[in-house]
Specification:
Two copies of one chain form a homodimer.
Chain A: E1 8-17, E2 22-29, E3 35-42, E4 46-51, E5 58-65, E6 70-74, E7 77-79, H1 86-98, E8 100-112, E9 121-132, E10 144-148, H2 150-158, H3 165-173
Parallel strand pairs in A: 4-9
Antiparallel strand pairs in A: 1-2, 2-3, 4-7, 5-6, 5-10, 8-9
Chain lengths: 176, 176
C-alpha cells in the first residue's frame, strides 16, 4: 500500500439492498486524520468476451440498456453468479447470448469499470476456434447478434456507435 | 430506435439519494409486453484527460479508491458540476489534480462506464502543448502525480497495474 494515500474504514452502513446492487455509506479516516464519508455500490462482478469467428469477424450484441435509454452495441457479457469462476461465467454468457461455443480462451485483463463509486470488476477474454450451437437467452432477455468485420468495428469506434467501456478495452486488447 | 428491443417506463421511484449518487427502481414494459423491474444509478457524468508532456510522457495520478480498497493509477478525471461543459471540467480537473495547463485539446470519445446499471458518461480528451503551473487539489483530496513513458504504460497495462476502464480506453485512443 502506497504511503500517505490510504483511507481507513471507521463505520460501514448498508443503505440500499436491491436485486443485484447494494449501496453503502461509510465513514472513513483520511490520510490527514480527518473524517469523510464515502458512498459506493457493491456489485457481484461480471465477465465479457470478444468472440472471433473463423473468418475473422467479431460477434457483438445489440440490446436496450435501460439506464441510458438506448440500444448499445457491446461484446457479450454477464454478471457472475455467487462463487462462479469467471471463465465458466464467460463461456455460459457467450453460449446464452450468441449461441457460440469456443475452444480457445485467452484472458485479456480484469478491469475496474468506475472505481470512484463501485467495486465492479469485469474479467475480459478473447474466444476463438468457435462453432455455432444454439442461442439460449434468459427468458425476458432481448438481444440481437451482429457479426462485424474489424474494419466495421474501427469505423463504429470512430463514429461513437461503440461507446461501452468494457467493449472498447476488450476490442483494443484483442488487437481488433 | 431498433425495433423489438426497447423497454418502456411504467413507473420510476427514487429509492436512495446520496451526496452524488441516486438510485432508482423502475417498472418497465418489455418488448414482449411483460413487466420487469430495473434498478440503476443516476450519476452526474465526468471527464478524463490523457495529458501528454512535450517530451512525450503521460501524466497519471495515483489515488486511493475506497470502493475497491486500493491505490489505482489513472488518468486525471473528475465529476461534472451541474450544467458544466465537459471541456471546462476537463481543464479544471487537469489543473487541480496535476498542476498542468494545456493549449491543445482533442476529444477522443464519450464512453459509458457500465450501462447495465448506470447512466454515467465520461467524456475523454487528449491534452497537449502543456506547461506546468501549480496543482491545487481539493482540500481532503490526496493525489500523487506520476510521469510515465509510453513503454512504461504498455508494461503496466500488460501486468494489470493499469486496470481502470476510462484510463485504458483513453490511452488506446490517444495512440499510446
Amino acid at each position: 500500500m502506497e504511503q500517505g494515500l490510504e483511507e481507513k474504514k471507521v463505520t460501514s452502513t448498508e443503505v440500499y439492498h436491491g436485486s443485484f446492487l447494494r449501496i453503502y455509506e461509510d465513514k472513513v479516516l483520511l490520510p490527514n486524520g480527518k473524517e469523510a464519508s464515502r458512498e459506493y455500490v457493491k456489485h457481484p462482478g461480471a465477465t465479457a468476451v470478444v468472440p472471433i469467428t473463423s473468418d475473422g469477424r467479431i460477434v457483438l450484441v445489440r440490446q436496450y440498456r435501460y439506464p441510458v435509454g438506448k440500444v448499445t452495441l457491446e461484446i457479450p457479457a454477464g454478471k457472475l453468479d455467487a462463487g462462479e469462476e469467471p471463465l465458466i461465467c464467460a463461456k455460459r454468457e457467450l453460449k446464452e447470448e450468441t449461441g457460440y461455443v469456443a475452444e480457445s480462451w485467452t484472458k485479456l485483463t480484469s478491469l475496474l469499470t468506475t472505481p470512484g463509486f463501485t467495486d465492479e470488476v469485469i474479467h475480459l477474454y478473447k474466444a476463438e476456434s468457435m462453432r455455432f450451437d444454439e442461442a439460449c437467452p434468459d427468458e425476458d432477455e432481448f438481444i440481437h447478434t451482429c457479426l462485424c468485420t474489424p474494419e466495421e468495428i474501427r469505423r463504429m469506434i470512430a463514429d461513437e456507435t461503440i461507446v461501452d467501456a468494457k467493449t472498447l478495452v476488450a476490442l483494443f486488447m484483442a488487437g481488433i
